[in-house]
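not sure who needs this but someone in the group chat was asking about MerR family transcriptional regulator from Streptomyces decoyicus so here u go. i didnt clean anything up, its just raw.
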Amino acid sequence: MSYSVGQVSGFAGITVRTLHHYDKAGLLSPSDRSPAGYRLYSDADLSRLQQILFYRELGFPLDEIATILEDPQANALDHLRARHRLLNDQISKLQRLVEVAEQAMEVQQTGVELSPEERFEVFGEVTFDLTYATQAHLKWQHRESYQRSMARAAGHSKEDWAKIMAEAADWRLRLTAAFDAGEPADGERAMDLAEEHRQHIARWFTPCPTDVHGRIADGFVTDPRAFALAVPPTEQRPGLAPYLRTAVHANAVRRSPADDA
């Protein structure tokens, strides 16, 4: 028995466009044509489609499905075991995100009190990774310095944040210019920029001695989310995070403990 594209679309709960895509990709081509030239699918075609949809539901890409269906030597069980492991990993990750979201609902009480429109207007591309912010909260919430920093951040007005972001944008522009110009990371220009960054943190958030600033800069290299808080991804260059870290540590060496503030 033969079935039209429209009938198969109705049976399978997928669009005609999807069937055409499968045909074009060589994954499922109808076995016959009507006298008028329309595609007609056989019972064997429907059986193959059922297999395709099964693997698609499990998240297999089309090229891998084609390998499983077309290669007599392909071991479908091995593919399924690999997919099973991946799905379990994804479940674990989603569960962690659920926990993070639950904690984040509490964190919002100590965050910056701006409306979504104001956040977009003020922060623009520089956004805060919710997972990263929440993990930081869970890790440091009992530290007095963290609590003080969050309290100061929560107390800033929209105008304050506009000044903070403008100051940071100007600093980023000069940082990337120094990097692009090949200025040495331990040179005066780079160290001055590192010191500006340290003073920016101290002025708007929390006291930032050079050892603390060094740990912050180390985080820029080990965690891209941390560096994105300082330099948005579209402004980053390969090697910029290590460059800034080197400048921060060089600046710490340059400064004497008596000047550390």
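also The mean pLDDT is 79. if thats useful
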